[in-house]
Amino acid sequence: MKMYKSIGSPIRPLRLFVGGVHGKEYRTTKLLFEKLVKTSKPKSGSAIVIPCLYMGRYVSTLSSNYLNTKACKRLVKIVKAFKPDIYVEVHCYRLSSYSSLTSLNRINVKGVPPLIEIENGVLIGSISPLLKAKLNLNIPILIETPCGKRKNFKVALKILRVFLMANSTQEALEALGFKHEVKNI
Question: What is 4-175's CATH topology?
Answer without folding.
Answer: Rossmann fold (3.40.50)
